[in-house]
Structures are given as C-alpha cells and as structure tokens.
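Ticket #4471: structure output looks truncated?

Reporter: J.K.
Steps to reproduce: submitted the chain below (294 residues) through the standard prediction queue, then opened the result file.
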Amino acid sequence: GRIGGTTVAMGLKVTTIAQQVLGLLQSWDRIGIKALLKGFAGVYSTDIQKTAENFRVIREKSAFMDARMGNYDRDMKDAFTTFNSPDATPQGVIDAGLKKVGLSRPIKAVQQVSFKPIAAVQYYAVDVITWMGAYQEALQRFHGDESKSVAYADQAVRMTQGSGDTVDLSSIQRGGELAKAATMFYSYFNVLYNLAGLRVADVARNRDAASVGRAAQSFMLLVIVPALLGEYLSGRGWEGDDDEDELPAWVVKNLAAYSLGVSPFTRWTTGAMEGFGVNFTGATRGAESLINLI
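Returned output as attached by the reporter:
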C-alpha cells in the first residue's frame, strides 16, 4: 500500500537521510543566511548541556516544534498514525486486516524505527536552526513580543520545510487515497512550489532589478544547487572520468527533472527523464527501493 511504499522508499535509505540537510537551502532563501547562521549559534554550543537546554527551550516555547518530529511530512505522519485510526478507505481496510492477524504492531514498529533517522536529521540539522534564526529575527522585528516571535518562527519552518498538518498541504494532497498515492513524497516539492510562487509574485509586483536579483538567487538556492548536489548525495553524481562533452546534457537533464517535480501534474515524468521509467505514484517503487538499499 501507500504507507508501506513510504516506509521502504524513504525510511530505510541512507541517501534520503543525507538529503534532508538540503532543506537549509530553503531556509536560506526565506530568512537569509545571516539569520540562519545566528540560528545555528543560538542552538548549538560546545557545551553539550547548553545545547540540550536550547532544544528543551524550543520545545517549551513552541507546541508546533514539540510535535515536529512526527509531523514534518504527510506520508510520514500517516505512517505513524494510520494503525491507530483505521477508516473505510482501502488503506484503512488493509490496516484493519493486519490488526486481525496480529501484524499491525510489528509493521508499525518497523515504520517508526525506519523514519526516526530521517526525522532526527530533519529536526536537528534543519528545523531547530531555522526556527531559532527566525525567532531571533522576529524578536527584533516585533520589539520583544514573545507570542508574535514564536508564531513567526513556527511559520518560517512551515513555509520552508512543510509539515504533515492538513492546513499546510496543497488541495491535491488533501484528497482521497488515489490523490495521496499520486502525491507521495510531494511535501518537499510543494514547499518549493510555494516559495517559487512568492518570488514570481515579487517580480510581477515590483518589476525592478532588485526583485529579479532575488528571483535569480532563489532559482540558485531552490533549483540549481539542490538538483545537482542531490544527485551526488544519492550516489548519482557526475564522475570525473565520464565524457566531459556529456556534462552539459547531464546538468540540463537533472535541472529539468527537478523543475518538473515541483508540479504534481508533471512530476510523474521525472522518472522517465532520469532513466527509471514512468511512475505515477511513489508506492510502486517500494520493492525496487528495498533491493537498492544502501
């Protein structure tokens, strides 16, 4: 099913875990590199106890961040909760059947263990840094208003990293099981779609060199760098001994595939462009991903 495909394709791959750090690029685009660096300094310290205390303070200040570890992605959130609340959907029927034969607990345990490394890297390497950077920026902007600063920091994480909350999902992601299957692993690209939309609106509104410059920087941070660096983190990077004449084609192909992935209506074509064949949902990649685990 969709949840099983999520566990296999996402949760157990080391390369998927490593790619979580690329989320810092979205934070950079939204709150700026200075705020991001301040966020890192505000969370991490050479004193381990101080760092742990900073983690505690963030969770204490923000209910959103306190629940963040199991809520940063729709499919991961569903994987954690689906066995607790089965319904009349096809997935719910499968869950009910697994409960009857005594397999729901073992499968749920595998899912939770599989996703914890991804959630941990996302939270500790990206989310807390983004939150703290935005929080400190907001304290200055709102003259020390605590509630406004926390809300601003929460929103910064939601906008740059997404979440599994219904309010943060696109309309197609909130559909039935068929729509959910067609938008598996789309939370990340939904964030990119929204951030890109903000830049397009910025250029359309201002029509000046400054807005074009901001859009160019966003294109670099949101498309070029993650598209190419992500290939290296996935073990599919350009090899130095490859034909140099093919390098431009490799770059163009990966930028095109990455850009098409931003839209839920064109993302299914990216597999064909990358040599994996056409794939309308992520669920069908489960068996292949299990074979190719690193």
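Triage note (M.O.): checked the attachment and the full token line is present. The chain has a mean pLDDT of 76.
Status: closed, working as intended.
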